[in-house]
Amino acid sequence: SRYSIVQFAAAMGEEADEAFTELLNDKAANQSHRDAVLAFNFLCNQSMKDSSAAAADARSNRTKRTALELINSMLQHSGPVIRSSMIFMHVLKKNLCMALIKNSVSLNPKIFQLSLNLFVLLTTNFKEHLRFEIGLFIEQIFLRILESGNSSFNHKSRVLQVFYKLCTDAATALELFLNFDCDVDEKNIFERMIDCLSKIAQGKYTSVEHSNLIQPHQEQELKGVALTALVTLMGSIVDWARRMTEDRAIEHDHPGVNGAQELSKVPEAADSDNEDDDQRSVNTMASGATAATTHVSNSIVEQKQRKLELQIGVNKFNMKAKRGIEYLKQNGFISDNPQDVAELFLKGDLGLDKTAIGDYLGEDKPFNKGILFALVDSRDFKGQELDASLRSFLSFFRLPGEAQKIDRMMEKFAEKYCQDNPDKFANADCAFVLSFSLIMLQTDLHNPGVKNKMTKAQFVSNNRGINNNQDLPREYLERLYDGIVNDPISLKEDLEAKNRLDSQAAQNAAQKQELFNKETESMICKTQELIKSRTKDLNKRVPNYVAAQSVEHVRPLFEVACWPYLATLAVLLEMSDEATTVESCIEGFKHCIRVAARFDMDTERDAFVSSLAKFTYLITIKEMKPKNIDCIKALLSIGLSEGNNLGPSWQYVLHCISQLQRLELIGSHSKQDFIFFAGEEDGASPSPGQAQAARNNSSTQAGQVIKRRATGLGVSALVSLGSDDRQVELYNSESVVSQIDSAQIELLFNRSTSLNAQAIVHFVTAVARVSKDELALVDQPRIFLLQKLVEIADYNMKRSRLEWQKMWRAMSKHFIEAASHPNSKVCIFAIDSVRQLASKFLEKEELSMFQFQADFLNPYEVLMTVPGVSIEAKGHIVNIIHWMAEQKHLKIKSGWKTILHIIRAAAQEGNEEIAKTAFASLEAILNRSYEVLIENFTDGVQALLAFGQCKVNLDMSKKAVQHLLQASEYLADKTRPDPPPLPPNSTLAQVPGVPQDASRHPAEHWLHILRGLSALVSDLRREVRSEALTGLFDCLQKHGSSSFDEDTWRMVFNGVIKPLFDDIHHQLQPAEQRKQEGGMADTSRSEAAAASWSQHMGPPTCLQALTALVRLFDAHLKPLSFLLEDVLALIKNCINHDTEAVARIGVEGFKQLLLLTGANMGPECWEKVTTSIKRLFAGSMPTKLMCVEATASGEGQLPFRKDDVVIQCVVQLLLIDMLQDTVAQHYEHIPPSGVMTLLDALQSSFEFAQEFNQQIELRQTLKRMGFIREMRQLPGLLKQEREALSCSLKVLFQVQGDPRMQNSEFAAQADEKLKRLCSMVLRNYAHKERLLQEQADAPTGEATADSASGHDREAATVEMEREVMGLVPIISDVVLRGLRDFPPDQFSRYAPELFPLLCELTVVNSREVRERVREVLLDRVAPLLVVR
Questions:
Q1: Is 1078 left (phi over 0), alpha (psi -120 to 50) or beta?
Q2: Contacts for 706-710 with beta carbons within 8 Å, 24 or more apart?
Q3: Mean pLDDT value of segment 140-164
Q4: What is the pLDDT of residues 43-64, one digit of tens each?
Q5: Would you tell me how many other CB atoms lie within 10 Å of the CB of residue 1398?
Q6: Does 592 have pLDDT greater than 90?
């Protein structure tokens, strides 16, 4: 009954507290419930009892055992009502936990074991209510037992068994991590537990500290349990995550986007050791992780990150306090309030260095002093003795070494102590001095360096009169002295260090036991204090228990645990050959790789995979042991089961597989690859060493230098194998052949079809990367993975086009590298591999607007264009393309584009055989299906152009030109469909002068053909050049009017014709100028070829081109009239060229243009023409001749290039001649304004020449300076003067008879010009004739008085004679004849001014002039006299 139970409890000395009183008074409570709680509480109290005497130990132990066994039974059979009772939870926390604290360090094995079993039971069933208590047990008891150097083997072993049981339940381990390691206010219990297990597994108990307690076999047992616990934990986590994802998939018919994506994957192969039999469940773990992301509590991840930031701040503070404080402020852990910093310093479990805290608090800065004051003010010293308060104060930091800092600290402490205990001392000074005295006493008594210790009397004497000049009680001071002597003031860290030293110094088990007893007492006291303080602090935040409900929680847990795991597994696998340990390590590796892979933890996954690969010994030259064979099997198992998640880690797996295959070849006595791929330089047969190897079917024969590529973690090196190494490899190969099933390797590649879209790309990339290493040995290449790459591509050919495209991007890059291999046989093998795949790929139907075929054939295009690929390889590629064009033409669609690119590259290669084969392929395409060229118009035209430029075969180039012209015929045929439009990024828009939107113009394709023909005009071969030029302008002539509109003509002129002439002009320039300006032609021509072009081929080509342009303009004058200014500008460029031949051609072309089109040009066109002529006259005027200062010596160099001035002089004469012929033929079509413009141009030319000719001294200076020194006469412009004058006069006389000029604004101007010009020329002639006559009549001696001046006068006389002789035909045939032909009324206007000059001409020496004057006088002057 209730009364009897309570009475029984009272009889046992128990008293009911308030909770039980409440339970007794609760009438609504169930009677059985109340009885059960009371009985449970009684049993808890019984288990805590200590024996009162030594004789009662046996009975006490039996009582404890019985109580613990009953408690265990009650907890196991408790129902939900009891477990949900708050009173029951209160008993658990207050009594049972206290009982377990005492019994968990019991020396009685059975009691100790029962206590541990109860802890496991509480952790399993009541962890939601005992969060704080569980953390305390693990941190303060279990971990301390394991870390202690004084605990026995039994204690350690049983605690490890507890940890092992915890590790079997992944949820419990995860919840430890979530509730403690992810809580900023809690310790990292899970991390400490993993670190402890890791250290134990690695052999922590090998030090002298444990040698007295733990024997070697016991150490091995502990290591085994710790390793098993670690492996079991990771295995349970893998299994828990799998179950979680399975349950979620069952609960939801549609697991979501990510889950659906993962469930749609093809199941992978199970491990070779039959683990993970349900492969679908294994592979859904990653999908579950992704799908569960939406359910993950973000606060957990944030808290973990927050905790990490706090630890970074603590580390910074320990290194430099100021930086740590700033970092903590920046991350929001503290504010600028000193109180926050003080509270941070009071938290002793953060890991802050107490020496750094003391130094920081002692700084004499306002903020530091504020923190010190806040820290002291937060302490409560009421009712405490001074030494106890001082101990409490100094427990938070280590006193700094500077006396000033200590003084500031003690001053504030004394003030606070006196405030809390006002009746203790007379004033604060007394407390300050006494506190300082106690610190000095501590140093004096406990510093080993102080030999003469302070006595009690000395201490009492030193503190006399400090209490306001009064003495403190002697008993009080002696009590303080005794306290310091017996219990020094020290930090917890110092005590722990001392205990460690004592533990290391202990020599026997008895001493160890004594030390352990002290440790257990400390554990019990501290744990009980923490529980009591937690119970009393009702205001402290009680966090909710976080349950493990999301797979995503595994990621942060593994980030913490992975590195201790890696260190443990790697060390044990390296050091141990014991079968059980090796098996556990390999299992641990596999579990860790699964977790890291399925949660996409790249760094961790790579670390574990690479470490496991290292232990296979496949990437090193070491003798293999059974554990290494097991590692190989594990690695293959991982490749089969985790293929979808290995990512870049595939390279480690494949490196090992590559070496594994090499060892299998050695072990099976098969020939290695390099035997078949011996380079041509080695001859047709293998070397003697290789032949011996072939005969013996072994690659490890003596005398043969075998090499291998040794690959480590990011390191790859070439290693030559010596005889010892070859023996090791031979032994390893035999082990591999006998224990590794080669079908596993094939299975791994065969099942690449089950990899998802992302995984297959990683897999293919890794295969290519490792294959590159296999091919790195030029003289001993291996093609194992290159073959496998072909097989993988074949297996996965049925994948979607998008997946295949990503795969091929990685594979094609490697095929290109392999085809560029220095070994020609490897090149051919790689090229044939692509051909095999292409042959199969082309069988797949391709829809329009796709580019898969083009991408597939892209490696061939790259190989044809990159340097370093042999001619043999390129020839093989061209043969393959020829075969495709012949055999696969019905299947090829987008691939034609790449094929045309390859054909073009073949034409540019410069090899005749390759070019012939490529051209045959192109002609086969054109003959069989001309639509291919139309659909790939730009690429086809570029290919034809490349053959036109190919120098290896003339007939091929001529045929290419004909094919280009045939393409133009197709474009001109309006009945045929147009080619597809050019892509937006077409290079056509980059052509100078072509609009940016030209690629969308209807005539866009014309420009490609015309530009191609234009480019061929610069060819050095006359036949090609002639056909291209003729074809270009014939095409424009024939189809221009019907196919081109104004925009097209403009694009043709700017994009074709103008660049054509620019290129011709560039090639005709001197070599030095070409080098300065650069040019496309210069890159492909030698200097000799350029000189030959400039001297022999350039001018005729330029003339032919300009003539063709003029004829084109004449034939299409009306539609092309808008281009007149552009044509004139082009002709101007020719005339202004630095080469005389081009300048002559330019003037001749201008002349042809005017003579052919002059009759059809309107006034507007003539205005443009005459303006252009005037500008040409001005631009070609040799004004540089006037820049030389006339001197008698003629020293110095010419300030201009002689050839430039000579060309200008020639151009002036040619322009005058052109103008004279043009006016003679088309005068009536030239508007009056245009005539006057021409007269102005002629006048400027005449006046400049006349001015220069009159400066005899200047001309003599030029001759002395070397200008036209080879001529006898002085440099002069006499012909220019005469021709310009003659032409001007002829035009002016023609103007006088032009009825259009009558009553026009130009009539008076023209009349005045003619009158002035006639007067000037007649007067000049008569004057110089008279001077010559006077010089002839002068005495000879006078003329030769001064030899120098006489020579100059002689030269002047000669020039005057030349001038006079030149004026005779002008005066007789132009001026006088024109005056004679004047109508009487017009002549009458000129007669008053000209009659005196005519009279002067009657006495000149020229009979011809006198006769013409006679005719004028008789025909025109005489009638005027008769009339008068």
A1: left
A2: 706/780, 707/777, 707/779, 707/780, 708/659, 708/662, 708/777, 709/773, 709/774, 709/776, 709/777, 710/619, 710/620, 710/621
A3: 86
A4: 888 887 764 444 446 777 888 8
A5: 20
A6: yes
Contacts 24+ apart (CB under 8 A), 491-494: 491/354, 491/394, 491/395, 491/398, 492/348, 492/395, 493/354
Coil, strand or helix at 709: strand
Q: Given this model, what pLDDT does residue 22 score?
A: 59
Q: What is the pLDDT of residues 1359-1377, one digit of tens each?
A: 788 778 878 888 888 888 8
Q: Are 632 and 648 in contact (CB under 8 A)?
A: no
CA atoms of 519 and 1285, how far apart (whole Å): 129
> How far apart are alpha carbons 263 and 6 in whole angstroms?
62
Residue pointed to by tokens 């995550």: 241
Give CA–CA dist 502/515, Å, rounded. Answer: 8
Query: Best-predicted range by mean pLDDT among 92-101, 889-898, 1027-1036, 1330-1339?
Result: 1027-1036
Residue 225: CA count within 13 A, CB half-sphere: 20
Q: What are the φ/ψ torsions at residue 485 (nearest 5 degrees)?
A: -65, -50
For 694, other C-beta atoms within 10 Å of its C-beta total 17
Q: What is the pLDDT of residue 277?
A: 39
User: Could you tell me the two tokens for 1168?
Assistant: 């443009």
What is the β-pairing status of strands 716-721 and 706-711?
antiparallel
Query: Confidence band (pLDDT; 50, 70, 90) for 915?
Result: very high
Hey, which residues does 716 pair with through a beta bridge? 711
Q: 240 with 171: CB under 8 angstroms?
A: yes
- Are 947 and 956 a contacting pair, CB within 8 Å? yes
Q: Which two tokens stand for residue 154?
A: 């039994």
- DSSP code of 547? P
In the numeric block, the tokens 């969308």 are attached to 1000
Cβ proximity of 697 and 843 under 8 Å: no
509-545 b/e with 16+ CB inside 10 Å = b? eeebeebbeebbebbbebbbebbeeeeeeeeeeeeee
Number of H helices and E strands in the chain, helices first, is: 72, 2
Angle between helices 366-377 and 354-361 (to 10 degrees): 110
Work out the widest C-alpha separation in the chain, in whole angstroms.
184
pTM of this prediction? 0.73
Q: Which of 444, 361, 370, 447 is nearest to 405 (CA)?
A: 361
Q: Render pLDDT for 881-897 as a digit per residue (tens, 0 to 9).
A: 899 888 888 888 888 88
Which residue is it, tokens 């492909």? 1084
Q: Which residue has the tokens 């202990």?
A: 506
Q: Are 618 and 635 in contact (CB under 8 A)?
A: no
Residue 442, Cβ neighbours under 10 Å: how many?
19
Q: Report the alpha-carbon distance of residue 838 to residue 888 in Å, rounded.
A: 10
Q: What is the CA radius of gyration of the chain?
A: 55
Q: Which of 393, 388, 400, 394 is nearest to 355 (CA)?
A: 400
Q: What is the DSSP string of 382-414?
A: TT--HHHHHHHHHTSSPPPS-HHHHHHHHHHHH
Q: How distant, in Å, are the alpha carbons of 669, 877, 960 from that of 1346?
A: 113, 88, 76
Cβ proximity of 597 and 637 under 8 Å: no
Give pLDDT, residue 648: 92
Give one DSSP letter per residue of 363-380, joined into a string.
--SHHHHHHHHHHHHT--
- Report in angstroms the alpha-carbon separations of 237 from 230, 233, 874, 985: 11, 6, 56, 55
CA 1200 to CA 1184: how far, in whole Å?
Answer: 7
| H or E stretch at 1223 | helix 1202-1226
